[in-house]
Write a structure and sequence with these properties.
Layout: E1 4-8, H1 11-25, H2 37-48, E2 54-59, E3 65-74, H3 79-84, H4 89-92, E4 96-104, H5 113-122, E5 129-134, H6 142-149, E6 153-158, E7 167-173
Parallel strand pairs: 4-5
Antiparallel strand pairs: 1-2, 2-3, 3-4, 5-7, 6-7
Helix pairs in contact: 1-2
């Protein structure tokens, strides 16, 4: 299963393949209001216009999108941090990358593609930390454990919208050095 990764910084170029692969990746959840394609498209449009927007998409040999990740830069006063609540100033004193979405299609899961996409999204970024939010119930906790194996650690719980499940907010240094878990 050959895949190639492509970086985007322009929402206009990324929108169509991002929405298409999102619909494929999240297909079992699309009936839920927070996961509906129009809801995602609205979030994507807002995120795509925020500072530091970047996306990485994986395409198969037939040029179909099969995986994605995107995020943008967040500052100390950003709603990203405010929703989490009492966040250690270490993470907010300089801009951070908020990884807003990541996913791969079912046939590509467990192949390392999500990690490749993640690492490509982080490559060359200048922020000091990267943060994400994960549903702790996803994959019966497996998804959060994967992020922990990538160096993320939980820093709080957040409900980004009334239709959203409670999510675990996680953070790690942008560079791949491990986090001091005693902090």
């Amino acid at each position: 299963m050959t895949t190639r990764l492509r970086r985007f910084t322009d929402i206009e170029q990324a929108r169509s393949p991002l929405v298409a692969v999102y619909a494929d990746v999240r297909e079992p959840l699309l009936h839920l209001p927070n996961y509906a394609v129009p809801t995602f498209a609205d979030r994507l449009e807002r995120h795509g216009r925020e500072p530091g927007f970047g996306a990485v998409l994986a395409f198969d040999a037939e040029d179909r999108p099969v995986g994605y990740a995107y995020g943008n830069t967040v500052e100390a006063g950003d709603r990203w941090w405010k929703r989490i609540g009492d966040v250690d100033e270490e993470y907010t004193r300089s801009p951070a990358l908020a990884l807003k979405e990541i996913g791969v299609t079912v046939p590509r899961r467990g192949t390392g593609l999500a990690r490749r996409i993640h690492d490509e999204l982080l490559a060359g970024r200048e922020e000091r930390y990267v943060s994400l939010m994960v549903n702790p119930a996803a994959g019966e906790g497996k998804v959060q454990r994967v992020y922990e194996s990538w160096g993320y650690r939980a820093i709080g719980t957040v409900r980004p919208s009334p239709d959203s499940p409670a999510l675990t907010a996680m953070v790690r240094p942008l560079a791949s050095e491990p986090i001091n878990k005693g902090v």
